Amino acid sequence: MEIPPWVPFFAVVLATVLFLATILRRGGHHAYRLPPGPKPWPIIGNLNLMGALPHRSIHALSNKYGPLMYLRFGSFPVVVGSSAEMARFFLKTHDQVFIDRPKMAAGKYNTYNYSDITWSPYGAYWRQARKICLTELFSAKRLESYQYIRTEEMRALLHDLHEASGRVVVLKEFLSTMSHNVITRMVLGKKYLHTNEGDSGTTLEQCKWMIDEWFVLNGVLNIGDSIPWLGWMDLQGYIKRMKKLTKMFDGFLEHVVEEHEGRRRLEGDSFVAKDMVDVLLEIASDPNLEVQIHRDGIKAFIQVRLFSN
């Protein structure tokens, strides 16, 4: 049987990685006093201990090794803090040291190449984005101005529940629809999505699928993030799913931005911002911004606003 041409190459790469991993493990661990944790395997580290629900696996390990634990996810060291004291240490006392998130596929594909505040690295862009969120998008005055939307959608929920009285209903679906309507009206200015395909070309069911998929893909343990030289293989299929999701979401967000830009051009000097997209477009047009916000940045802001309310 003839050996495929890629097998020798793969064998050499694997042997090299194993050798380097062994050398680095022997030479590096003596330099630091590391927290306790399970012994890592070559190449994969402690990924073999991560089950279908990694947060539960990590919780079980922290019960064994303590509130400060050392793991290795493939090529990368991971320190897990799992107590209130450790949370204060990482998130308050030394927050600027640990503020950056690692460059992972979810940030690249799901948020326009790390353009939103969740995934962008700490720096001028992040500080500007945080300021925009605090003083413009989520200020007390801005949120208070949307009170009428919350009131109207609550009344609509009660009306729908009254109409459904006398039969079994899934309350979660009613609450999900109300929450979705409140968010889209606050962020986008109207209910773009309906049971049938609306003017945005996206149905309500497609939007719900995109939202569910977005949350799933932002929380998965992607092997390529931990072992970068395996990333191109997309062993779990997550990258393919991220690209499909991004393409669908981008089409919807492009429609939203174009419609809002059209209203701004039509109204000219009399234009008044009515929703968060309007506010973002006004901010992005300011030539005095420390870091200019481009179109992908605007769409990244809109996207994360849809999931953070």
From TrEMBL:
A Pfam family reported for this protein in Swiss-Prot or TrEMBL: p450
Transmembrane listed as a keyword: yes
Lineage: Eukaryota, Viridiplantae, Streptophyta, Embryophyta, Tracheophyta
Signal peptide: none
Sample GO molecular function, one term: oxidoreductase activity, acting on paired donors, with incorporation or reduction of molecular oxygen
Name listed for the protein in its UniProt record: Uncharacterized protein
Keywords: Heme, Iron, Membrane, Metal-binding, Oxidoreductase, Transmembrane, Transmembrane helix
Family: Belongs to the cytochrome P450 family.
One of the GO BP terms on file: secondary metabolite biosynthetic process
Transmembrane regions listed in the UniProt entry: 6-24
Superkingdom: Eukaryota
